[in-house]
Amino acid sequence: MNFFFEVLIGGLLSGLMYALVALGFVLIYKASGVFNFAQGAMVFFAALTCVTLVNKFGMPLWLAIALTVAAMVVLALAIERLMLRPLVNQPEITLFMATIGLTFFIEGLAQLLWGSTVQRLDLGIEDVPLAVLLDNFNIAVSQFDLISALICGALVAALALFFSHTKIGRALRAVADDHQAALAVGIPLQHIWAIVWAVAGFVALVAGLLWGSRNGVQFSLTFVALKALPVLILGGFTSIPGAIVGGLIIGASEKLAEVYLGPMVGGGLEGWFPYVLALLFLLVRPEGLFGEKIIRRI
Questions:
Q1: Cα–Cα separations (whole angstroms), residue 208 to 122, 225, 271, 275, 289
Q2: Long-range contacts (CB closer than 8 Å, 24 or more residues apart) made by 223-229
Q3: CA distances from 223 to 44, 88, 256 (A)
């Protein structure tokens, strides 16, 4: 039973990190109605920028993070001005294809500026079992996973409150419902998009730092975003609480499946089980647990 709880807790902690990546998708989808395929590239760009400032330029971590936040804000403003603004009121598929092109641009820009060598990032958080749980309950839970999950949970909760109880949050929901109506009542569409992309860039930075510290800052960070797809399908593309719940479900289910079902199918279950779960979930509730049900009149 202790081993079961060890696997379950580890999965839930990983799930909160998945939820943080999914949150970047949710914010942009709520504001523009488009799936931002470039979120994974933003995670990579943010992590690579920060680690390069630390390792190659000798900056303190706090200063490197501050400069990377500024860089992500500049990147967000440039994306809004050069890509989104000319495509206002274009079909969703046009915006989606634009984010695919943006993905390759950001990936190339990051490696052009900082190189493509795998770099180690040290956040000062040790990846060791928590002594309290290990000594008292014989459950090995990583200190790094716990602290990372607390950071992710706090950030997700803060953003959920910000977008639910502030004027900007109400404007965001208005923009998500109808761009033209929002413009008609005086909501500055470009400003809202710029704010949302800047926040998504900050979320990408935090996710990049945590995943980069664990796995190394490398190109494979772009694929971390793929784990957010099942999270979005389960939680709903427009729900911040849904990103949390979906992340917890995916994180726990993939770990439990790998441990208890993996030996029956030869292992490797953790890599593809979340997508199978999401596919099955689409058959039952395609809008997600917290998504808005779409009603079309014919």
A1: 12, 10, 20, 22, 27
A2: 223/40, 224/21, 224/40, 224/43, 225/21, 225/25, 225/39, 225/40, 225/43, 226/40, 227/18, 227/21, 227/274, 228/18, 228/21, 228/22, 228/24, 228/25, 228/39, 229/275, 229/278
A3: 9, 29, 22
Residue whose tokens read 């602290």: 147
Per-residue pLDDT of the chain in tens (298 residues, 90 and over written 9)? 778 888 888 888 888 888 888 888 888 887 777 788 888 888 888 888 999 898 888 889 899 999 999 998 888 888 878 887 787 777 778 888 888 898 889 888 888 888 878 888 888 888 788 787 777 777 888 888 888 888 888 888 888 788 778 887 778 777 766 667 777 777 777 788 788 888 888 888 888 888 888 878 888 778 777 788 899 888 888 788 888 888 889 988 888 888 888 777 766 777 788 888 888 888 888 878 876 666 555 5
pTM of the model: 0.86
Evaluate whether 287 touches 294 at the Cβ level (below 8 Å). yes
Residues whose CB is less than 8 angstroms from the CB of residue 95 and which lie 6 or more positions away in sequence, other chains included: 32, 33, 34, 84, 87
Q: What is the CA radius of gyration of the chain?
A: 20
Backbone angles phi, psi at 264, to 5 degrees: -80, -25
| Nearest to 247, CA basis, from 2, 26, 4, 5 | 26
CA distance 88 to 83: 9
Pick from 229, 225, 234: which is nearest to 280 by CA? Answer: 234
How many residues in total does the chain contain? 298
Encoding tokens for residue 227? 């784990």
